Target: tRNA-2-methylthio-N(6)-dimethylallyladenosine synthase
Amino acid sequence: MEHNRYKVFTYGCQMNESDSLRMGTQLEQLGYKSTENLEDATIILINTCCVRESAEKKIHGKIGEIKNLKRKNPEIILGVVGCMAQKEGEKLFRKAPHIDFVLGTNKIHELNNVINDIKMSRHHMTNLAPDDGGMPQEVLPPTSDALSVWVPITYGCNNFCTYCIVPYVRGREHSRPMSAIIDEVQNYSKTGVKEVTLLGQNVNSYGKELTDTSFAKLLYELDKIDGIERVRYMTSHPRDLSDEVIDVIRNSRHICSHFHLPVQHGSDRILKAMNRGYTIENYRNLIKKVRTAVPDCSLTTDIIVGFPGETDEDFKDMLEFIKEMRYDAAYTFLYSKRSGTPAATMENQVEEKVKKERLNKLMAVQNEISLEINKKLEGSVVEVMVEGPSRTDEAVYTGRTSNNKIVLWEKRGQEQAGDLVQVKINHAQTWVLKGDAIYG
Ligand code: 5AD
Ligand code: SF4
Model:
């Protein structure tokens, strides 16, 4: 029995985190238990990301590390799963023959079959999704005592932004039936889950290929489920955010007032080359609409610097635009060339050094804005859902506000994970708010 342990390494987005948990559920059906100690594991899974080259490099490093372990214990089964697995397929065996199997995206439900086959034959095995990604079969959600869970609602992406590899690996967009999602969340509510985060590459287009289904309708239904205090979602495409969704959020009890609307750039010329499907003016109007409807909402974004052809002028436009938007936070990325995407063969690729300089400038401007926005909260009282002790100090607790600000306070009461507490903010920083919980 002591050999029945597994360890999953997860890279990339929340969809991968969710898939990793669902793979864990399957392994548990085979009698395996999770372990944090790699030396104990006989199944090791690496759930991969390929959205940027930096992720791929890290993953190759991790695959390399497992080689020595396998030399010591040949019983170990090493599986590489997820996006990079889907993209590279059999090529991975050539680079690293100690890998036992490669399982593509949307193939989570095949995991146990593949493992059973390997145990019998010890041959390399590959199982990849078809070209359009396909609609994955339902996999049991994890049976844990978690308070916060991920719930996939769409798979794949139809947008083909010219820099992005996702539509090529994860295939066309498919929406899960609304009844499956509602059932899953209802079941969670009975096990004490308080927060759900809906996942998809572009949740705003949820239900487009189904009848009588839309993201607004889904949110409306989920808002009614008792016990679920907070509903979040990731990630959105600004072009597809409908008036109905804004309306449902404004009138809801539990849908968080946080809008993550990736703008990607601040210059119309670059947005066009990125195939984003909106102009700066469209985006500006959307944000006005959102902020008028939900005045206390927080707004975050994703931005890429160094897209091919980006001039100093384009970069200046980007800086001006983020100053105008005053985002609560921005996730900033260096453009990474992904072969197979249209942008990879565009002329005027920006030099690495220039990209890095621009990224540093952008981060400095955004950090100042984030800090200014957070400073305004000093002296106010915010409602926080308790997550538990912080990573560095058992006595300091952490949680989030409805609009996704991270709050830290010294625990002096009985609060537990999942509770809602009031915290008076007395020290705001760029990424976190520190304060005192108000008891009784
Ligand atoms: N290079 C850099 N960033 C990228 N993203 C997607 N593809 C690339 C790429 N090739 C970023 C986008 C997206 C986020 C999840 O990752 O900003 O919103
Ligand atoms: Fe990539 Fe664009 Fe789809 Fe997002 S919307 S996954 S950036 S292609």
Observations:
- The mean pLDDT is 94.
- The pocket of 5'-deoxyadenosine (ligand 1) is lined by residues 51-52, 163-164, 262, 264, 302, 304, 333, 335-336, 338 (CB under 6 Å).
